[in-house]
Amino acid sequence: MNQTGEAIVEIRSLVNRFGDHVVHEGLDLDIRRGEILGVVGGSGTGKSVLLRSIVGLKQPDGGSIRVFGKDLQRLPSAQRTQIERRFGVLFQRGALFSSLNLQENVALPLFEHAGLSRSDAERLARVKLALAGLPPEAARLNPAELSGGMVKRAALARALALDPEVLFLDEPTAGLDPIGAAAFDRLIMTLRDALGFSVFLVTHDLDTLYSSCDRVAVIADKRVLVADSLATVEATDDPWIRDYFHGPRGRAASLAARHHSSPQGERR
Amino acid sequence: MPDTASRPGMLEQDAHRLSAVGDWTLPHYARLREAVAKVHEVESIDLQRLGELDTSGAALLVDLLGPDSVREIAQWAPNLPAERQALLKAVADANRNPLFAPPVPRGNPLAALAGLGQVAELLARQQLRLVAFIGLTLSTLLKTLFTPWRWRITSLSAHVQQTGLNAIPIVALLTFLVGAVVAFLGATVLRDFGATIYTVNLVTYSFLREFGILLAAILLAGRTASAFTAQIGSMKANEELDALRAQGLDPMEMLVLPRVLAMMISLPILALIGMLSGMLGGAVVCAMALDITSTQFLTILQRDIPLEHFLVGIGKAPLFAFVIAVIGCLEGFKAGASAQSVGEHTTSSVVQSIFMVILLDALAALFFMEMGW
């Protein structure tokens, strides 16, 4: 349905370091239109740093990141903001503004960037909250009153506020119970099919990888070892990948995915 | 840039058939919404000439058609691309429940009165809680007093350094300046009576009895009470206090006692420094503007000023220190999980501790005056 293939984010020989500690060196990766790209790697391999470099929160120390065909680092700040508005980011712990309620949280980018009136923005915000699967009563709650799953959904609604073309998710299912995590995975896929955005998904959740990712990129040794379909990645001969995908958890997730994909499983 | 080539979205009506034309996207939302509001609910719409469509446009179409007919979109608009249909269906599903939460009941005229009562009650509760917290602090202090192996010397000395040692420069500078100002004031008033020599008495009296301790206490209330609140408040937000309790450790003993004791050690020393530095400021002005040499200043100080003034001043220091530290810590415990709450309680702790310091100082002044000390 979506013409996958066209790369909308191109990362070439990216270098990131903190002091003497080199996180990335010569890292290449593409995000293609309409795909869900899972990014995995051990703790401390710089998955979140990669995400922050792409969305412009961290200045890379070398290499280039081209987004929609433009190099973000070289653009004047006004045009940069224009491009950054086409991103939606879901931070690891939600990062909802604690002084605003949910509907104001989602409405903020709408009336700051899209110039809507307050009532229009809040109305649209309620649509987004409902799209993210939150009940109408939640609109007036403050972030401190929410459970972990609701925080993730609200953060997703805020990330979707400006109809982004690329959605960056930093461990969206971490801290959710398995049922909530599965529902969140389904939600991401439904919205991706409906809204046609691309997803850059940093995760440790093997079930998420098996159930929703079109491609998986493995980060190790400061670069992307392999970025391809799950089957190809699984077959790659690398000790870390073997341990990751063929360890007890990997096997269980793979089994569960195969078991349920055949009857077009709604429930997992 | 999709926005540059954007054709504004419109609603066109011709011969009983509505059609959506152009881009139904966020930039055109406000205008489209007005157009949609004018049309009564319709069953179907022509989407052949629709340009771009995003969630905001889809939400408008759902408003226009009602969620039920949008969900059956495949029947009346079979030519629409599948992803458009999916988008419209997703938004329609989201709209299944009424989007507007039941309105919050508006307050009646008596609400203001009720609000006043609530504030008064809150204030009373706050004082009660402060008293309770003071009691808790004292009982914890008594408990640990006889178990010297539980004294937290490292933590105590670290807090003495932060609240006492690091505050010396600012206290000294501030009291020096105020001492100079008081001396100038005294000189101006007393000159008319030919009694400029009494400037010395004015400066020493005021700094020994009041200003030394008061200025030091107010500075620490601003500098340290806020720090205590922010430290403990952010620990609470991070669930560190719960972690302490879960490990069977007492936050009162670990966090509050070292801070309170450090404050009670630091403030008397800072008050002494404040007194000395204030009198020095006065002496400098006396020497430069009034021709009262430092020898003369010291002689008058030694001959005319009894020790009890110093004792009255320094005697208040431990009390002030205790109140400031306890308020700072208590506000930290009261803070909620959010950054905003920590900020509010930090402000509150500074305001409360300065208020309490001045109130107690006024009461003490009355008491000492009646006692003739």
TrEMBL record, chain A:
Record domain ABC transporter: where: 9-246
Highest rank taxon of the organism: Bacteria
GO molecular function: ATP binding
SUPFAM superfamilies: P-loop containing nucleoside triphosphate hydrolases
InterPro entries in the record: AAA+_ATPase, ABC_transporter-like_ATP-bd, P-loop_NTPase
Keywords assigned: ATP-binding, Nucleotide-binding, Transport
Regions annotated as coiled coil: none
Name of one Pfam family that matches: ABC_tran
PROSITE patterns attached to this UniProt entry: ABC_TRANSPORTER_2
PANTHER family given in the database record: PROTEIN TRIGALACTOSYLDIACYLGLYCEROL 3, CHLOROPLASTIC
Protein's name in the database: ATP-binding cassette domain-containing protein
UniProtKB/TrEMBL annotation, chain B:
Domain of life of the native organism: Bacteria
Keyword set, alphabetical order: Cell inner membrane, Cell membrane, Membrane, Transmembrane, Transmembrane helix
Cellular compartments annotated: Cell inner membrane
Keyword Transferase: no
Predominant location: membrane
Family: Belongs to the MlaE permease family.
NCBIfam families in UniProt: MlaE family lipid ABC transporter permease subunit
Listed name of the protein: ABC transporter permease
Organism, scientific name: Billgrantia bachuensis
